[in-house]
Input
Amino acid sequence: MTDRLDPTRPVSHEAMQATREIKDVQDKLAFGDNPLAHLEWDGIRELDYPPPRWWVITFIGTVLFAVLWSILYPSWPTPFGVWRGILGYDQRVVVAEDIARAEAARAPLVQAIGTAELTGIQNDLGLMNFAIRGGQVAFNNNCAQCHALGGAGQGFFPTLADDDWLWGGTPEDIEFTIRHGIRSGTDETRDNIMPNFGADGILTREQISDVTDHVLAISGGEHDAAAALRGESLFAENCAVCHGEGGEGLPELGGPRLNDAIWLYGGDRSHIFSQIHRPAHGVMPAFEGRLDDATIKMLVVYVHALGGGQ
Amino acid sequence: MSIQSITNRREAAERLDLADPAAQRVLPRRKRAEPTIGVGRVYPRAVRGRFRTIKWTALCVFLAIYYLLPWVRWDRGPEAPDQAVLFDFLRQRIFLFGIEIWPQEIYYATGLLILAALALFLATSLFGRVWCGYACPQTVWTDLFMWVERLIEGDRRDRMKLDAQPNGPAKLLKKTGKHAVWLLIAMLTGGAFVMYFNDAPTVVRQLPTLEAGPVTYFFFGLFTLTTYLLAGWARETVCTNMCPWPRIQGGLLDQDSLAVTYRDWRGEPRGPHKRGESWAGRGDCIDCHQCFMVCPTGVDIRKGLQLDCIGCGLCIDACNEVMDKVDRPRFLISWDSARNQALQVQGQAASWRLLRPRTAVYGALFLAVALFMTGTFALRSNAGVDVLRDAAPLFVQLSDGSIRNGYSLKIRNTAHETSRFEVSVADLPARYRLIGDREDRALAPVVSADPGSVTSVHLFVILPRSVMTGPSMNVGFVLRNVETGEVILAESIFRGPSS
Output
């Protein structure tokens, strides 16, 4: 008996013939004269057995699911607008709810920041971390377009992460700058102006060149010592009011420090010369009124923590 | 198309006369063939004896460990759970008694799995399929379920009779009772499983009150279902049709491995034996089929070593009972090696060779991995650090010309108390600055790492331009534990301007 079931046993020609005839009879019984039942490619015959019942049930199930879904949820466009679904589900509402929930969760901290003093925030580790996170988001939304990510600065927009501050780097200074801007046109804006020493004929080209040498000298650049000496008195007369006697800067007036390695408009001879000849002036908008108090404070904490805070 | 249906058809073709109308009855087979899994049900008979006792003992020990281990408590202080064995996904820790494994130390778990595999290889090459026969969960739970079945429906003969009966109240009662008890055991199994991942007393309270999480219910349900199906319904087909291990085992066995063996040189020629008849000229096997009837996988061991035999040795117990009755020596079926068989056929004494190249290699590998793991485990630090360099800005130039880079230090402290680390840059005249500082520090700052967590510290490092060897150079961070003096090192890169 086991012998006869051995699949490796060779099959006689007659047996194979008989198998084929049985199949033919099976097909005949199952399909009558259906021509499809006899199509054959490469030994694979196409029959039209009905699909398995589980498959049909699943298929009908998916159709029913789709119908039910399109009744319950927003689905079909119609001439009278989109079918909204009888559940009234709307992803915009869901998102709005999510945002409201997130706002509610942050509310206590935001409120605490809104009422706290800047130093108070910086002394409270939890508030501080929250402010830095929130400040980072606000910075990337409002400031990074000019000051670049992480306050790295770019072009004529100053770096905020270094230790050189045009208008001061204490939290209070930073807050004032953010609130009122620089040359922003508001009443309390930080503002100053450097005269067009060359374009307006205050100094001659030679004098400007001498002053340039002096500036290079105090900042440790390559310079002509004789010219720098000539420029020293010119610097004292024309520049020291804002930039300080030794070029150490005057943050109260926004006078940039000159005796260091950081240059907003370029630190080589030609850039310094042209900045004296016809100075460029940056503008920063005032954010008071555009951002709420808490956001501004978070921005202050974030910028102060970028590495250069004083 | 399965081999079976091919052979059936081939057989049919050979047997049938097409002209015979009776043949046509079998022909239109629109329905799918019955599934071939579990051809012929197995009704194992109860048996007593040495190996049955070992099997019961193993069953009790393993089930006791499985069900009770989550309840063992282990004090780890107020911050950590007090369950001795806990796979805590919420805290991302594995707690094993005094050992605590963090996600980044998951290779310890890998090492344990390797050890388990090597132990399995060693045991298999020495003693054959002891894992399958005594320790595999499939075997243990199937044994438990069969015991329940036997209690409710009776032994082999009663069960066969019951299944052949038409449905009636008595049959229905027994079947319902059996499945109810099975499901109860299955639920206990699923319940015990989730206890390994949750605090046991808490989850026991949460499960019936619908307070447990969806994941907990999912795995509770999954293990209830699989226990019920695999131990109740699938049984030996899991070993013969689903499990890859019997196939792999073939490669681990050799001439000296123990296997449950029918000593055909003693048993053949077999045949019925009447009391008082002579044993001369015949074998000891009286063809009583007891070995076959007690087999949980329905194997006739007298056909020799085969895939379906899980090596539980119950047939040895059954055969010994019979041998005692007919007053012949025991162990016509026995644990024996192929080489011993050959020796005994030639009339020589059996000899055991436990130490062979194969077992030596498995043993040596096991020892090596165990030693390596113990060593690394004993030397592992309570702390570690990952240094992530700030990407924006890449670097900052300061007024005095020096360069500043920012780093996030992720300090991992696996100890249960706060550790304080002095963070410095090796061999360079660096200045430092932490968030909140208003000026740079000349001295290396001391930061504290919270117990049992990863503390993130943002550190600015300022280096004079003169020490920079190029636009980018390697820097080493040194974290020195202020209390213990233990030092952790980490590498990173310091960037500066290209010119």
Notes: The two ends of chain A are 97 Å apart (CA to CA). Chain A touches chain B at residues 4-7, 11-12, 15-16, 18-19, 21-22, 25-26, 29-30, 49, 52, 122, 128, 132, 148-153, 159, 161-164, 220, 257, 260-262, 305, 307-310 (CB under 8 Å). The first strand of chain A starts at residue 39 and ends at 41.
